[in-house]
Amino acid sequence: MSHHQEIHSSRNIPGHLNPSTRLEKLLSEPGNRVCADCGFPSPKWVSLSFGVFICIKCSGIHRSLGVHISKVLSVNLDEWTDHQVDSVIDAGGNAAVNMRYEALLPDNIKKPKPDALIEERADFIRRKYELQQFSAKHPTSASASSISSSSSAQSSVPNNKYSEKKRMSIRYGLSQAFRNSWRKKESEQKPVKQQSKLLQMGMVEFVGLIKVNIIKGTNLAVRDVVTSDPYVILTLGHQTTKTRVVKSNLNPVWNERVMFSIPDPIPPLKLQVYDKDTFSTDDKMGEAEVDIQPLVAAAKAYENSSIMKATQLGKWLATEDNTLVKDSIISLVDGTVKQEIILKLQNVERGQIEMELECIPLSQ
């Protein structure tokens, strides 16, 4: 039985291997020992959407595409489920995914190397995954396949015989991915404008990662007669995600964790709370901003600290000039820099949001 088959079979045996162990075994396979996009050794991140292991620099580009295109998880920092590991196994590993998404890679386009500039890395990853220009299923790949059909490496790739209807379907699917992304409410925005914005997103360096735990809301505003169906939209730079909707609750508990790449220069973390409506536009329930620069500075300063006991590193004071309900403490806990925050929502009659932030150095 091959190593890959062994991992596959283990998922049918309850309690045989936990998700973390299965993931490590999958990571140890030869094709997965280097980043699928640039070849950097020992990748510690995964695009769950495509089932590839990638390095931290490439993971930042994947994140900038948005979770509707590439959802990124950490091998070590995230809690994996069996279902998520199964999806990575089903993708076949880095080699199999690259055979699909680089099937028609032109000779004049080279994959980025581990030391590639951010612009080169971002351009390649977008063309590979978002636009799928090198895939046999790409609408323009019919002519490309005839040029490269003599290549033995591509001989196993089936000829592209998609009908015009199928081609239109692919184009429609890509455009819908942009339009249906909940993070874009500018439905009237032109696709060209969106692409320009996306290109700008990738041309940045990342200085770290931030885990955001949206814990709960308190005394939120009423938007549906006597209650609301609240959810939170989180934005850091051009990266956006949202929590689930909590039905009929003015004191919702989410306890949802998300992770963002921290771009340089460091933007504020923005929160927007909405009431979910079925038949009309979602109602606003307030907003707030968090300056994460003090947290990032503390994380950099104590990145290699040997201090293990809980230590207060700093304090963000609650004043009339900010939205804090009470002073916010930045602490070193078990070697991790964290910050607990309770915010008063702005531009609304009432409401508070409680959250916890954790800054993660790139070395992890």
TrEMBL record:
<dbReference type="GO" id="GO:0005096">
    <property type="term" value="F:GTPase activator activity"/>
</dbReference>
<dbReference type="Pfam" id="PF01412">
    <property type="entry name" value="ArfGap"/>
</dbReference>
<dbReference type="InterPro" id="IPR037278">
    <property type="entry name" value="ARFGAP/RecO"/>
</dbReference>
<dbReference type="Pfam" id="PF00168">
    <property type="entry name" value="C2"/>
</dbReference>
<feature type="region of interest" description="Disordered">
    <location>
        <begin position="140"/>
        <end position="162"/>
    </location>
</feature>
<feature type="domain" description="Arf-GAP">
    <location>
        <begin position="20"/>
        <end position="142"/>
    </location>
</feature>
<protein>
    <submittedName>
        <fullName>Putative ADP-ribosylation factor GTPase-activating protein AGD11</fullName>
    </submittedName>
</protein>
<dbReference type="GO" id="GO:0008270">
    <property type="term" value="F:zinc ion binding"/>
</dbReference>
<keyword id="KW-0106">Calcium</keyword>
<feature type="domain" description="C2">
    <location>
        <begin position="189"/>
        <end position="306"/>
    </location>
</feature>
<dbReference type="InterPro" id="IPR000008">
    <property type="entry name" value="C2_dom"/>
</dbReference>
<feature type="compositionally biased region" description="Low complexity">
    <location>
        <begin position="141"/>
        <end position="156"/>
    </location>
</feature>
<dbReference type="InterPro" id="IPR001164">
    <property type="entry name" value="ArfGAP_dom"/>
</dbReference>
<dbReference type="InterPro" id="IPR035892">
    <property type="entry name" value="C2_domain_sf"/>
</dbReference>
<dbReference type="InterPro" id="IPR044518">
    <property type="entry name" value="ARF_GAP_AGD11/12/13"/>
</dbReference>
<keyword id="KW-0479">Metal-binding</keyword>
<keyword id="KW-0343">GTPase activation</keyword>
<keyword id="KW-0863">Zinc-finger</keyword>
<keyword id="KW-0862">Zinc</keyword>
<dbReference type="InterPro" id="IPR038508">
    <property type="entry name" value="ArfGAP_dom_sf"/>
</dbReference>
<dbReference type="GO" id="GO:0005543">
    <property type="term" value="F:phospholipid binding"/>
</dbReference>
